[in-house]
Amino acid sequence: MKLHRLVCTWQGGGVQGNAVTVLHFDGTEVGAPPVAAVKSAFDNFKGALPLGVTVTIPSTGDSIDDATGTLEGVWSGSGGGAITGTGTAVSAAGVGACITWLTGGIVNGRKLRGRTFLVPLHNSTYDSDGTLAAGTVTAVNAFAAALLASGGFGIWHRPTTVGGSDGTSSSVLAYRVRDKVAYLSSRRD
Description:
This protein has helices at about 35-45, 135-150, and strands at about 1-10, 20-25, 55, 60-65, 70-75, 80-85, 95-105, 110-120, 155, 170-175, 180-185. It is mostly beta strands. The chain has one domain (about 1-185). Strands 1, 2, 3, 4, 5, 6, 7, 8, 9, 10 and 11 form an 11-stranded antiparallel sheet that branches.
């Protein structure tokens, strides 16, 4: 199956290294992924992002084969752009929230799941006990619901060997947001 890959880049204070959010959408239909809906989800979440942190949602990207990860083409859409955080400028490096995406797919006897990290978040998004504030959990749930409602959203499992063809993908059916701070040690492109 063909997947459209949407790579959103994070920049600004509190962001370390090559920070990206990679989203995959069903590319078997003609057209682009729901770029404007993704931008709207980030726009509605910008109050949790530190002042000066920018997330850029592109209007173009790659299309890949889900079995091999091979580039099959490019897509072009509209509605992309940059969203800048409006929270306080203070944040803790490498911590924030995490969304676990649930699918009906099975890979090697296990359920196929995905994760999206929202890191960093500004200091007022946390409770005094070190968990996420209730309003933050609500905002992350709203962000996740918006992505799920955008249509065609899926999770890609890379091939298990270099040059392999055992990759797969599955549509996201639900999500889970825990009232727990997520620690981000690295990001992959």
